[in-house]
Amino acid sequence: MNRWSTYQGNCSGTLGALAKLPAGPVHKDFASVHKYHPLGHGNSFLSTFLAQLKIGHYCDLIVMKTSALISIALGLPGAIAVPGALDTDDITFAGVQRALPNAPDGYVPTSVSCPASRPRVRSAAKLSTNETSWLEVRRGKTLSAMKDFFGHVKVGDFDVGAYLDKHSGNSSSLPNIGIAVSGGGWRALMNGAGAVKAFDSRTYNATATGHLGGLLQSATYLSGLSGGSWLLGSIYINNFTTIDKLQTHEAGSVWQFGNSIIEGPDAGGIQLLDSAGYYKDLADAVDGKKKAGFDTSLTDIWGRALSYQMFNASNGGLSYTWSSIADTPEFQDGDYPMPFVVADGRNPGELVIGSNSTVYEFNPWEFGTFDPTIFGFVPLEYLGSKFESGSLPSNESCIRGFDSAGFVIGTSSSLFNQFLLQINTTSLPSFIKDVFNDILFDLDQSQNDIASYDPNPFYKYNEHSSPYAAQKLLDVVDGGEDGQNVPLHPLIQPERHVDVIFAVDSSADTDYFWPNGTSLVATYERSLNSSGIANGTAFPAVPDQNTFINLGLSTRPSFFGCDSSNQTGPSPLVVYIPNAPYSYHSNISTFQLSTDNTERDNIILNGYEVATMANSTLDGNWTACVGCAILSRSFERTGTTLPDICNQCFDRYCWNGTVNSTRPESYDPAFYLADSMASVSLPTMLSTVVAAGLAMLHLV
């Protein structure tokens, strides 16, 4: 039952009168910001707010009290016009549901009965049967979603709906979309969240003209690494929830970053005692894994700590595994994209992660790589079992629970392990420090950034070609340490046939923590590496980093690989979406460990504006150009002539091969929106007004 149903009654007289009131004087900030804000345009906030609450015979009193509070808060004498009407879901702060707590013994990997068909390592020569079966279901869902998407995204006069219907009988003719969210700590999580929010049709008003809602529902794949993997973890382990629900201001909700991850969550008591309890929980979980005979590393503690900030579960969701995503009914029904978390391998005997390092992926069914160094995948659910030569010996048990969701996203962001070394300088109790010292005892400084996968699932697998085959433990590190900070690797595999990748880059490549294309350069150079590490994958040509800055390719979205005939092999078109200051300086340090709700919301809003080019106010054809990028490879396969609008878009956004490698001045872009500070203040204002309205319910 709607929580407001208790207050239903005849409020039509008062609300009707309110609805007819003129908007009154509007603060200049709000007059300018509403054209940029994701909620779009709106009517009188107060009348819409109360109409949706349906408060009944309390209406007159609440109107007076809420009007007074709003007037006091905003300095406005009358009703105000602000972006869009509020959805009651935004007010009720519905709880975020979770995935499956299916680990047999919390964080401790545990022996279980093996299935009749014992798990084994498979060759990476083709996709898994799980993925191919799932794709048959998912592709049907993406067709429906694309038809909805192109219902509000127009590609000139071209009838995209009719085109999709015409080719619906052959899914290989239809567009295949991937989205990649870069690393970069909390900056990457929040900026990436803004893009995902813009792409999500569930976001209020995201399917209006000038917006891109529905792109997420149309995508087949979604990848993340480091900070981007935290975003994926928050979305998927919380049952593919929305960004709106993750960023509520409700106490105890998921994304509360005011306390740093070093302090731990605010449990309502003295913070030192709260922190002590937090670290005791972390220590107990990791100690249990060690006592069960598994090697542990700082990544175990880091992953457990991340879980408290990313998952809506008590004690950070000890029993939630990454493989549980595959068991959720919605994922099995193909209702949302397939997620990848990306990490790197550290070659035996090496400390530096180079361009020839192995790139691993975690998907809901498997862990492994297409790289020739291993060229195999192991069932993720049974990671921790003692595989040998690709099979599980008959005298070995099956192990489950190793793939803790926190450990997976912690592995992808193990660079942040360095922060845990600060613990010994704090005033925390000695028993907590003892746990850290015990873990650090066997580690030298060069091992602080690793995640230990014990036992190595690829032990003696492909012995003739794998440098990891003789290793009892597998060292896995942060997915961005090889320079490929945008997780493109899973999406450029030829077997997946991805047509277009929306690459959201929140990297801190420059002095002022803005991206300059370094990640794309690294992926392109890897595709040309003479060692053969690319293993047949191709990537569109991109210019050097100086050219990215000098030609403005870091200040707005750019397309790479528009001409598929000019590629070294089959490769997707890449829509590069770099972080930039549209309305907020979203270039916070990668190592900033806390942010209040106001800054969090501002960075998410800025990310939304970056992805939509301020709801197409900076380019009225932006959504059409996105549509052209999606359809481009499909048009080639079906022999369809590009609509004129697409030729115009490609002239505007496709890199044309021009290079300017002159060393630029320090890249420090100014705000792109003239009224940026209005946009910055809006989320806090809206929250204040909503809180004021809700408070009135308790006063009447």
Automatic annotation (TrEMBL):
Pfam families assigned to the protein according to its UniProt record, in alphabetical order: PLA2_B
Record keywords, A-Z: Glycoprotein, Hydrolase, Lipid degradation, Lipid metabolism
Species assigned in the record: Penicillium flavigenum
Recorded catalytic activity of this chain's protein: a 1-acyl-sn-glycero-3-phosphocholine + H2O = sn-glycerol 3-phosphocholine + a fatty acid + H(+)
Function: Catalyzes the release of fatty acids from lysophospholipids.
Entries under SMART domains matching the protein: PLAc
Enzyme Commission code: 3.1.1.5
InterPro entries recorded: Acyl_Trfase/lysoPLipase, LysoPLipase_cat_dom
Domain (PLA2c): residue spans on this chain: 113-660
GO biological process: glycerophospholipid catabolic process
Gene Ontology MF: a single term: phospholipase A2 activity
Top-rank taxon: Eukaryota
Protein name: Lysophospholipase
